[in-house]
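Continuing from the previous page of notes. For each protein in this section, the sequence appears first, followed by its structure tokens. Read the first protein now.
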Amino acid sequence: MATLWQLQQLAASQCFIRYDAHVGYVFIRRSHAKMSKRIAIVEDDAAIRENYADALRLQGYQVQTYPNKATAIQAFSLRLPNLAILDIGLEHEYDAGFELCQWLRSQSNTLPIIFLTARDSDVDTVSGLRIGADDYLTKDISLPHLAARIAALFRRQDALGKPQQSDHLLTLDALTIDSQRMSVEWNGCNVDLTITEFWMLYALAKHPGHVKNRSQLMQDSKIYVDDSTITSHIKRIRKKFMRLDSSFNCIDTVYGMGYRWNQTANQNSAGQ
């Protein structure tokens, strides 16, 4: 079996390390697709910044880090990353991450942007998503879940360039969900959902009429948060549909149990 030092050298070039309880440290060849993806982390806490960077490099990504908005914009003006992870408060600037997100979105409509922050209020979350972030996560998320969220964004981005395949489509009257592209349409209009919101909606719509409790929604969406956060996500999903259709009422709250997709309401909305 290779020594840990040997595995570390391999990890620096073409592999990443995994620890297996039965055989010890083993190495796994990096995906060339991942090695071509460049991730930028903008975080003012050096220890947190490097912890995330090291973990993502071991996943096979190229990672650049920046401590503040100014250095990030200087670098991004020369070359945009393939995905950006932003904190909100950066050094002495309380909302620098929001400003950086707006600047990035002005440079690219398709660049995946994730907020990763300690600020978990609804006001901050809604603000981050409204100005163009694709996902909003708090720093209590585990590294494996962060990596899964990043991979999902890259899958969605890659899938947008591929032909639509019917076996990935879920259609319920006015609602169309493409699970490959992670896209949603209502009456032919795109509904701009985050990755978290997409999987929550998909979990409900895949089994219309069936109640999903909060634990099941967390499992389906690969997040672990408190009940109030699940409620906030559901409210935002509803609001996004209602911007397109003020009569939208297809997500029912089943008090004391959870939520369900109301197929009957869906049919009524589609017919109006």
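Done with the first. The second protein uses the same format. Note its length before scrolling.
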Amino acid sequence: MRVIRLALACSLLLSAAGCSVWQKPVAEDVVLTAPPEAERQPAPVRERREPQPLLLEVRAAVAALSYNIRGGLLRPPRVEGRLEARLQRGKWRHIVIHHSASDAGNEAIFDKAHKERRWRGVGYHFVIGNGHGSSDGLVEVTFRWEQQLSGAHAGVKEYNERGVGICLVGDFERKHPTAKQMEALVGLVNYLQDRCSIPTGNIMGHRHVKSTRCPGKNLPWYEFFSLLNH
């Protein structure tokens, strides 16, 4: 009887202490994480170089064009004919430059050839010789300038009627103007610009107004314009 009482007392004490039936602890789930991978450095990428073409220096045989022309030329050095013709006011607005496309020539030869075409005579106002037919650098003044007549050189009405035609003897598709021709051209154009108030923008080659190669690929335009006074 005494033993039963002790067991009952013990049971009551445990219940009052809030004890619960002991259970075997359950192991917590352990999440295993793989160690971080070492940062991989990208392998250096070699730049792919395309094979380069072999560079060859090409030197074209170009004639040296240093004419050493005197600066400040206000008229051509040598003139044959009446350069100081009385102007027809406001008539001249352009200057059109030509080559003869022949190795030789002069005013008389061109005058005869143009008359054979049933023209009034030589179609240019000025002819500049190259030493073959007339003196090198000589400016021949034709009747068209002396009489202030329209030209027959451009093939376009405006540039025939309002344009001063200048022909340099020579074929500038194959050769270059002589130094004396260029000097004469610079002096003549300076004179015409001053006297007729023709702006530099109105100085042109025949090919700039009509489909032609005249005055040839070898006329040194940049050097020519750099020597004008305007």
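What the second structure shows: Residues 91-226 form a domain with the Lysozyme-like fold (CATH 3.40.80.10). The longest strand covers residues 94-99. We return to this in next week's lecture.
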